TrEMBL record:
Phylogenetic placement of the source organism: Bacteria, Pseudomonadati, Bacteroidota, Flavobacteriia, Flavobacteriales
InterPro entries found in the cross-reference section: MenA, UbiA_prenyltransferase, UbiA_sf, UBIAD1
Name recorded for this polypeptide: 1,4-dihydroxy-2-naphthoate octaprenyltransferase
Stated family: Belongs to the MenA family. Type 1 subfamily.
Reaction(s) this enzyme catalyzes, per UniProt: an all-trans-polyprenyl diphosphate + 1,4-dihydroxy-2-naphthoate + H(+) = a 2-demethylmenaquinol + CO2 + diphosphate
Protein EC: 2.5.1.74
Functional note: Conversion of 1,4-dihydroxy-2-naphthoate (DHNA) to demethylmenaquinone (DMK).
Domain of life according to the entry: Bacteria
Cell compartments where the protein resides: Cell membrane; Membrane
Species assigned in the record: Chryseobacterium kimseyorum
Pathway: Quinol/quinone metabolism; menaquinone biosynthesis; menaquinol from 1,4-dihydroxy-2-naphthoate: step 1/2
EC supergroup of this enzyme: transferase
Bilayer disposition of the protein: Multi-pass membrane protein
Gene designation per UniProt: menA
Keywords associated with the record: Cell membrane, Membrane, Menaquinone biosynthesis, Transferase, Transmembrane, Transmembrane helix
Length: 309
């Protein structure tokens, strides 16, 4: 059991929850202002679905990189990856991917049934399609004949599914409407998710070169990937600030909503420490730190909007 828990890579879970928290609690704040209702059951199910997607993705990545021999070339990670180390066989991991795909789909249908049936049938089927696409994206990063992670497209998929779909989609589950300003927090979370993936790919840049995994970091080179990382970590808080400004908080008396801006300090420290790294393997500790900062950004934005009215 411990090997399966390690393969689930629990340190990635806060990052996956961030988009749901951001979208759901912005929806709660907006519904409160409009006299609408916010269903906590939808929120709980949305969290469950997201966790299932993340574990599915981690298992699929372990399986895909394991059978392709990519993990075997990673001196820093080979011991921890289950298939590459032999702690879990490729067949067992493949079965786990199939099982979690089925469970994820069932949980998705349950969530969407609760959110949309009986009054929003069209939206129900549209989101079923998004759910299936999310499952396929979770698997397709490293699995298949042409996994998109091996073609340098991982950043794009992460931005879309962990950012825009997660934030805007969870917002829609509650409000049944789309608001253009939601693209701002959606992009903020998406950029943070890209920052985590880019750090991961920067860390593994040499081993990926040997295994033929052409990540975006490998395509542009370590130096340019570092610049790219700084850009990704610079803009999320700015986007959140713009979102708050567009919603009138600069003119309001509710300055507590800007509590999320406290994160400017840890963001600046993190960027400085990452820039000081000379060896790719030294980037590993920052993966967890960026994930936690993303989670804190979502929680503090939600807290500021909903608990200091």
């Amino acid at each position: 059991m411990s090997d399966w828990i390690k393969a689930a890579r629990l340190r990635t879970l806060p990052l996956s929850l961030s988009g749901i928290i951001m979208g759901s609690f912005i929806a709660k704040w907006r519904l409160w202002g409009e006299g609408g209702t916010w269903d906590w059951k939808i929120f709980v199910l949305a969290l469950l679905v997201t966790l299932l997607y993340q574990v599915l993705s981690n298992y699929a990545n372990d399986y895909g990189d394991g059978i392709k021999g990519t993990d075997a070339k990673r001196a820093s990670e080979a011991e921890a990856r289950a298939v590459a180390s032999g702690k879990i066989t490729a067949k067992q991991m493949r079965n786990a991917v199939i099982l979690f795909s089925v469970i994820s789909l069932i949980a998705t249908v349950a969530l969407l049934y609760l959110a949309f049936i009986p009054d929003y049938i069209t939206e129900f089927y549209i989101f079923i399609g998004l759910g299936v696409a999310s499952i396929l994206a979770a698997i397709g990063y490293t699995v298949g004949k042409k996994p998109y992670g091996y073609m340098g497209l991982g950043d794009l998929f992460v931005f879309v599914f962990f950012g825009l779909v997660s934030v805007c989609g969870s917002y829609f589950l509650f409000t049944k409407t789309f608001s253009w300003d939601m693209l701002l927090p959606g992009t903020a979370v998406g950029m943070m998710s890209m920052a985590v993936l880019n750090l991961n790919n920067m860390r593994d840049i040499e081993s990926d070169r040997l295994s033929g995994k052409n990540s975006f970091a490998l395509r542009i080179g370590f130096k340019n990937a570092m610049i790219y990382e700084m850009v990704l970590l610079q803009f999320p808080l700015i986007l959140i600030l713009i979102f708050l400004a567009l919603n009138g908080f600069l003119q309001s008396q509710n300055y507590y909503v800007f509590i999320v801006m406290i994160l400017i300090i840890p963001f600046a420290k993190l960027r400085r420490k990452i820039m000081e790294v000379k060896e790719p393997r030294q980037l590993d500790p920052f993966l967890k730190q960026v994930g936690i900062l993303t989670f804190m950004m979502a929680v503090m934005t939600a807290f500021g909007l909903n608990f200091f009215r």
